[in-house]
Design brief:
Blueprint lengths: L1 E4 L2 E4 L15 H21 L4 H6 E9 L11 H15 E14 L2 E12 L12 E13 L2 E7 L1
Parallel strand pairs: 3-7
Antiparallel strand pairs: 1-2, 4-5, 5-6, 6-7
Length: 155
């Protein structure tokens, strides 16, 4: 089905993708799994800059929508896109550190509120480097897909 938003035509699935549960998994378990995956992603991929963890946390078919870019089109799809995004943010912010302020889940969805800090040393989202310390909050909603983080909507 085609949907037109803000002058952009987007192909939308007719229904939500089916969840692929494994034996013994309940919906509460998916939320807990999602929170654990986000904690690993923040602590290992972001704060320790260990990109190997991306393959262990991010679904190969990741769909990512970021309102700072274009919320109607996937912005950094797949594992490689997630890896490129981490590299780009690390290049833009020296001493990057992310703190998890809140995590909550319902079913297969996990909401996260994060505090990002570092020194703005490179261009980010079209903003020239200021060479100043910065701190800002990011809100995101993740969805677990096949036991990994498969969808993200973030501001």
């Amino acid at each position: 089905e085609e949907v037109r938003r803000g002058g952009v035509t987007e192909l939308m699935p007719l229904r939500e993708p089916k969840l692929h549960k494994t034996e013994g998994d309940g919906m509460g378990d998916l939320g807990d799994l999602g929170k654990d995956l986000i904690r690993r992603r923040v602590n290992e991929a972001w704060n320790s800059y260990d990109l190997g963890v991306v393959d262990q946390c991010i679904h190969e078919g990741l769909v990512a929508r970021d309102i700072a870019r274009d919320p109607y089109q996937p912005n950094f799809p797949g594992r490689q896109g997630a890896t490129d995004f981490v590299n780009g943010i690390h290049a833009a912010f020296a001493g990057l550190h992310i703190e998890i302020l809140d995590l909550s889940s319902e079913g297969d969805k996990v909401a996260a509120r994060l505090l990002v800090s570092g020194t703005h040393q490179g261009e980010s989202l079209g903003v020239a480097p200021t060479r100043r310390p910065v701190a800002f909050q990011v809100g995101s909603m993740w969805r677990v897909r096949d036991g990994l983080l498969g969808y993200i909507w973030q501001d």
